[in-house]
Amino acid sequence: MTRSRAFNRFHRFLARKHRDEVRNAASVLPADETRPMDHIQKLMDRSFVLDDRLEMEETAR
What we know:
Layout (H helix, E strand, L loop, with lengths): L4 H22 L4 H4 L4 H22 L1
């Protein structure tokens, strides 16, 4: 059974409304949260912190 034109138009309207709500909510976020996360840089920073911590522990002995 095919859906009516009114049914399809209503669901397109709802989808547009939801997209607008998401878009408006995203503009409220701080700038650092809207940037995509750089996972490789995050892993590298974490490894540098771990290396520094291990080096400090070795020199403290």
